[in-house]
């Protein structure tokens, strides 16, 4: 849903509500909601940048799997005169699992960063190589073996722009 759409800037409001029902009787089944607001602006032809905030919540059959959280996010696509482009994206999330006062009290700080470079193959088809980094800092007094982790990654995609 667009609340304002005036070139080259816009404000985007996005809402999502879903019922998550995994196969079988899984304790994580439940209602999930997400709401975000972003400011977007065009740069250099088909390029753009965006910055925003969001919130999310999930109910679950098992209270330990329910959570509430918030996030900040930003992205940019910068096209070059050669038809190549660079893309950057990042997210910082805070997730608080609703188990306060129990032995499973837990909250996470989660970060994600990605940088990609696209090369035109033909028409609107591009090859894009990217590197990414995921980080999760877990604050818990849980007896479960849940650990902070860092994960670098890489990928090669075929991208069809339309």
Summarize the structure.
This protein has 162 residues and is mainly β. Helices cover 0% and strands 70% of the residues.
Helix proportion of residues, in percent? under 10%
Low-confidence stretches: 1-5
CA-to-CA gap between the ends? 20 Å
Return the average pLDDT rounded to an integer: 86
Shape: elongated
Q: Which percent range describes the beta-strand content? A: over 45%
Q: What topology, given as strand order, has the largest sheet?
A: 1-2-3-4-5-6-7-8-9
Question: How many E-type strands?
Answer: 9
List SSEs in N-to-C order.
EEEEEEEEE
Count of all domains: 1
The biggest sheet, with number of strands, parallel, antiparallel or mixed sense and barrel status, is: 9 strands, antiparallel
Specify the structural class.
mainly beta
Give the count of helical stretches: 0
Radius of gyration: 19 Å
Structural description of this entry:
A hairpin with a 3-residue loop joins strand 3 and strand 4. The relative contact order is 0.13. The chain is built from no helices and nine strands. The protein starts with a strand and ends with a strand. It is elongated, with a radius of gyration of 19 Å. It has one domain. It has 162 residues and is an all-beta fold.
């Amino acid at each position: 849903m667009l609340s304002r759409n005036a070139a080259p800037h816009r404000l985007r409001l996005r809402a999502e509500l879903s019922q998550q029902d995994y196969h079988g009787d899984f304790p994580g089944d439940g209602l999930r909601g997400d709401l975000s607001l972003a400011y977007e602006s065009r740069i250099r032809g088909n390029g753009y940048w965006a910055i925003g905030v969001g919130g999310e919540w999930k109910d679950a059959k098992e209270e330990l799997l329910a959570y509430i959280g918030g996030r900040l996010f930003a992205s940019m696509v910068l096209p070059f005169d050669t038809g190549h482009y660079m893309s950057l994206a990042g997210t910082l999330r805070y997730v608080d699992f609703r188990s306060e006062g129990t032995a499973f009290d837990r909250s996470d700080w989660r970060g994600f960063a990605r940088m990609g470079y696209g090369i035109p193959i033909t028409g609107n088809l591009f090859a894009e190589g990217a590197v990414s980094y995921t980080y999760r800092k877990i604050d818990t007094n849980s007896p479960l073996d849940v650990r902070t982790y860092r994960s670098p990654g890489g990928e090669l995609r075929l991208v069809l722009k339309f």
